[in-house]
Design brief:
mainly alpha; globular; 101 residues; Arc Repressor Mutant, subunit A; two-stranded parallel sheet
């Protein structure tokens, strides 16, 4: 599984600052569109140089897994890069979605 995780990390490292992608998009780029959950597992243990905060779910929702304050930490990291949000707290995917080069 470490080869798969390495591939996922390599993909997420390519997401530009101020852009986001989804677990499903990363899974597709990694070779299996059904690996969205595997992407989540890989990001949970990712090295520090992997910008995990640039990955959201398909609805643009944030993750509770960010330390120390879950979704608030996730949002702060994205806002720091200029990522726009809707009033409901989801990312405005139409403006910043990255699906690979």
């Amino acid at each position: 599984m470490s080869g798969v995780f390495s591939r996922i990390w390599q993909i997420v490292r390519q997401v530009p600052r101020g852009r986001v992608t989804t677990y499903g998009a990363v899974a597709l780029l990694a070779g299996n569109p059904r690996w969205a959950r595997v992407v989540g597992y890989a990001l949970h243990i990712a090295p520090e140089d992997v910008p995990c905060h640039r990955v959201v779910n398909r609805k643009g929702e944030l993750s509770e897994a960010f330390v120390p304050e879950g979704k608030q930490t996730h949002r702060s990291l994205l806002e720091g890069e200029g990522v726009p949000f809707r009033e409901d707290g989801t990312v405005l995917l139409e403006e910043v979605f990255w699906q690979g080069e």
